[in-house]
Amino acid sequence: MHQPFANRADAGRALADHLKQYAGRDDVVVLGLPRGGVPVAYEVACALRAPLDVLVVRKLGVPWQPELAMGAIASGNALYVDEELLRETAVSRDDFERVLADEKAQLARREALFRDPQRAAIEVAQRVAIIVDDGLATGASMTAAARALRARSPAKIVAALPVAPADAASRIGGEIDEFVCVVTPQSFFAVSQFYSDFSETTDDDVRAILARASSASGPASS
């Protein structure tokens, strides 16, 4: 099968083409979900001439199948729990709380790592907040991210993705105001199947991208 995207940067440029209506506006903010969403978001921010920030999200994986999300957390104590999946997998409350505690610690570590002391979080109140990831599978991370953002009173929340399942918009529709996606295939197994190069984005990669974006746009809070 032909992969529609060469890599995350290519995916970001393709996604930016679907967001042209937000280009050149001073009320738009782009937020990448670390780690893989940040290189995609960088291309979107560059194309739209908008400031870039991160919104740290951590998936809550089923203990014996970590890639399967039973929920997610995001900066600002936002929490999403897939209660149906919890019932189906019979994850105990103790196991859930253990995963939650571990991921809260990881989220705090990532916040400290990515949030430069001199670079405050970008203000999103009364602005269009475009949340970008490299793809959507279960929707847990995007849901938690949207809930975290909603608490910061944006004018509008846009979920923007290169690829997602055909039913993705209905999965997260209640949490966002607009859904933008380049490819929504009927046959979907994993985000990685739609990239020729889906190599890992590291913490250092994220830091470097944020530094590049910050130096290009001036003060991040502007």
Automatic annotation (TrEMBL):
Domain (Phosphoribosyltransferase): residue spans on this chain: 10-172
Signal sequence extent: none
Which Pfam families does the entry link to?
Pribosyltran
UniProt GO MF annotations = glycosyltransferase activity
Keywords (A to Z) from UniProt: Glycosyltransferase, Transferase
Keyword field contains Transferase: yes
Q: Which CDD domains match?
A: PRTases_typeI
The name under which this protein is listed is: Phosphoribosyltransferase
Species whose genome carries this gene? Paraburkholderia azotifigens
Taxonomic lineage per UniProt? Bacteria, Pseudomonadati, Pseudomonadota, Betaproteobacteria, Burkholderiales
